[in-house]
Structures are given as structure tokens and as C-alpha cells.
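Support case: user asked for a sample of complex input and structure output to validate their parser. Sending the pair below.
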Amino acid sequence: MILAPAIMIFLFTQAADKIGKATEVTKSNVTLQWSIILIIFLPICVGLLIFGYYAFKGYYEHLPETSAEITDY
Amino acid sequence: MSNTTKPEKGMGFIIGASSVGTLIEWYDFYIFGMLATIISKQFFPEDSGTSALLSTLAIFAAGFIVRPFGALVFGRLGDLIGRKHTFLLTLILMGGSTFCIGLVPGFKTIGWAAPILVLVLRLIQGLALGGEYGGAATYVAEHAPANRRGYWTSWIQTTATLGLFLALGIILLIRQGQGVEKFSGEWGGWRYPFWISLLLVIVSIVIRMRMSESPMFAKVKAEGKTSVNPLKESFGHRANFKMVLLALFGAVMGQGVIWYTGQFYAQSFIENVCKINFTESRNILLIAILFATPFFVIFGSLSDKIGRKWIMLLGMLLGICTYFPIYKSFIKWTDPANKREMVDASKTTTGPAIGAVDAKDKKKMLVSIKYDSVYTDGAVFTFTKFDTLHFTSDYTGNTAQIGYILANKELPSKMDTVLVKAKAAAGVVLPEGISYVTVEKKSEKRGVVIEKSLDSNTYWWMIFLIFIQVIYVTMVYGPMAAFLVELFPTKIRYTSMSLPYHIGNGVFGGLVPFLGTLIVEFTKTKDNPGGDPLAGLWYPIGIAILCVIIGAIYLSNHIDDDVMD
């Protein structure tokens, strides 16, 4: 749960740092690269956050042994 | 409810038919990566160097990134209309888009339309692949008896590596048959592997048309129990969604990075960092893959006996512990500083050089000089230094003398002395007493191309270390299909297993070459222009560490006897 926000902050600071340091020539390329990275990894971080929440709540202490445990909503 | 006694009659055909299509899809997908360097030259403006390569890798990565969306689209279709028809559709899409990539004219002909078209076709490839694997793995697993599920599905796992093998083999054959120059031209041989795909896909479609629907899905459908909304049932309910997240973070993301490091990053590293020549670097990978591929089946089969979890996690752990020593060895073995040259000509050798007048600018001359360094261990490293020279005035191109004094063979940044005497063009008035035009500005674009041919001993050690990495791949990937199939119920299996699989492999794994290259770029400074070549390994190692921790704590080693429900 803590890891996911930490990764998000790391990604944002890295993106700001690298885009800020880029020269005029490379700026568009660097911005594009970091946009791709952020677009991809931020939703995954949200997934990791939810995973952390489930783990924290103990939802993984019992894993389903039959499909009925999954499909009986 | 166990189906352990289910007869295995016909499994050969089921495996064969499923595998051929999957293998071809992987082949289609890989040829793009294999030809990234040529593609970057053909579809991007000249002189953009690393940025063109990065852009190509980005397009390559786009194909991976879009895979999870393909998993959602085709996974849903597979759970609604059936496995067979869905993966027939994905095969047609994949083959068609691959063939079309081979038809796109280069940047010189259609400008920016070229990379845009390639990107669109690459996205279609990625979408199709996103739907393919889940279908094939589900289809085979739903036919296989429970006590042999790991064994049978591991055959599907071999297709990814065999697809790479096929792609490499075909590219090498065409390249050797045509020669490097013809192969790399705008309409050269590099396009043939894309065109060959059409033929392979037609064969595969014919085979797949003969397949029947998965018996489990057919049963579920006959009973009217198919899912009405597979996406909602897969991701909208906590009971299933938590398993999707566990599959992703506890198994598949680690498997993805181990796989792409062992096969793609390894090849990219020995070619671009170690500078091993094109043919040798690919031969090394081909041989390593050939010897390691049977281990997919061995580990798949073993997972039927001892469970899937610890085999997969051990594969990741071994990767974490050994990647740095392995890649350090690659650098050490190919560094000229660690070898003894038979004739020391590295400092001040004047050799024959080739000069060519620039077609547009008669004051420019392109010079290049090629040196072979032979070492006591039998290795031969070829250095081709090139430079663009400016002259004080136009000249005829009838160069009387070109000399080259190398300051340093390997580094383009080291200034070389170029001695040139060129005859002035007609009408050019030269100062009194001077009969040749002279170099005004010594250098414009210096560079060096290094191609290393290894000695036999190093060559086999390299194969061994890549073989070791592919063994890790077989450990994490061999049991994976069975593991994923067992996590989810039949009616939403295609959707539920496809998404984590393609995020893990497509995003985490597929981005290994791109992010690895990018991380190395970040380490480049003025004092260290080459950066830290090993820095790119931190990405796969970091992801694998996280995955091992999550997997060890939360995954179950239980083998599900019944996947019929």
C-alpha cells in the first residue's frame, strides 16, 4: 500500500527532472517518453495500491479452492 | 469432479494446431524487434541516431502496451462466442498487419506517414497478440487431464521461444543470402520476413479451421452458463479481481521481465554494448534457445508433481542473483583491454582509407578506414572509423592521397589525423605554390562502428550464459499457463487470465529493452559519455524482487484438480 504511492511520486519527480533537464532539441522526445511511462505505470500503481489494500485487509489469507467461491457474488 | 482420467487421445493434434498458430503470432511479433535497427533507419529521418532507435523501440513497445487491451477485447469475445473463433480472428489480424508492415514505403518516400502507418499496424499486431495467447493456453488446458496440465500447456509456452527462433533463423538466412547492403535497402530483404508471414498464417488458418470448440466451453455454453458480461465479472467483483491482481503482481510481472531480459535484452546487449557482429550475436541466441527450449516441457511437467509456485519463483530469484555477474562477464570478455593484440597497431597506424565526394556538396568528403585487430585468443575485432571532412574549395574527387592516423581505435571522440591531398576542381584558383585543396575543418561527424568476432572459447561461454538465462525463462514460463488457467473459472477464464498475462508480459516484460536503454541513457554524463551499461538491469531486477516477495507470501502451491467448473 505504501509502495504504490512511493513509486508514483518517484515517477513524477523523475519525469519533471528529466523533462526539465532536456535541451530544446530533445525536449519533445523526452516528454513523449515520459508521458508513455506515466500513462502506462500510473494505472498499474493504482492496481498495486488496491492489491496492497486487499492484502492489508487480509483478503488473501484464504484463496479460493473452487470456482464457486469466485463466481458466487 | 476430478478429470484426471480424461484420455489424452488427440492431444497431439490439439497441441499442434494451437501451437502452430501461436508460434506464427510470436514470429510476426518478434521480427519487428529483431529488425529494429534497420526499421529505425527506414521509417525515421536520417541522422536522428539514438532518438530514432528509441522511437522504434517505442513503437515496438507500443505493440506490447496495447496487448492488455487486446486481452480485454478478445478475452471478452472468447468468453462470449468461444475460444476457436476468437483465436482464428486474432490470427488473421496478426498476419494481415505483419504483411502490411512489409509493404509500407520508407521515410524517404512518404515522409512521416511511414512511421505513423507502422505504428498503427504495430498496434493491430499487439491487439491481436493480446487475444491469442490466452485463447490457446485456455484451449489446451481445457482439453488436458489435470495431472498432466502443466506438461501439455508447456508446449504452448515453447511457441513464444520457438517463434523467436524462427524469426531469427529466417532473418539470418535472408541476410546471408542477400548480403548486408541489399538486405538493408529500402525495399531490401528485411521486408521478406514480413511477407513470409502471410504464407505461414494461411497454413495456420487451414489447420485451425479443423479444430473443434473447447469441450469445457461447449459444455458451459450448452448449459446456458456462459458469462453475460465477462469484463464485469472478471474485474467488477472483488473475489475474482483480487486473483487477477495476485496473478499479475505475484507471478506474471516477474515472469515478464525474466523472459524479456533473458532473450531480448541479452541479444540487444551483446549486439549494442558488446558490439558482437550481427550474425554471431544471433547465432549465440539461436543455439542457446535451441538447447534450452526442451526445459519448458521439463519444468511444465515437474510442476504437475511439485506445484507451480516454487519453480516459478526460483527462476526469478536466480535471475535476480546472477544477472549482474552474467552481464559483467559479457563486457569483460569482449573488452579489447582484456585481450592481447597480436600486432599492436592501435596507436599510430596509417592505413588505406576510402574517400567519397558528397553528391550535393563538392566541398565535403566522406572518409572511412577499416582496421582488423587480431588477438592472441583468436578473436578478431573490426573497427570502421568514419568522418566527414570539409575542404577549402571544391575539388574533383580525384584524391591523390588519403592517410589516416588513428589516435584511438575505439573512441570516435578521440581526434584522428586525416591526411588528404585532393585535386582542385576546374576553375578553382588555389594560392600560389599549392597544388591540392586542403582540409579546412578537420572533422564534422566522427564515428566508429565496431564489429567483434569472438574466439571459440568466449563464443561458447556466451552461449552458455544466455542458455542459463533462457533456463530461468523456462522455469518461470513453463508452468505459467497451467498456473493461470487454474486460478479462474471457465466462464470468465479467457478474459481473467489474458489481462494479467499481457500486462505482465506486454508491459513489464515488453518494456525491458526500451526502459533498459533509457536508464542507461540517464547515466550518461559529460565525464562518462557511454554511461553505465549495466544500469538497465536494475529495472528487471527490481520488478523481479517485488514479484518474488509477493509471490512467496501470497501464492498457493496448490494444483487445482478441477478446472471444469
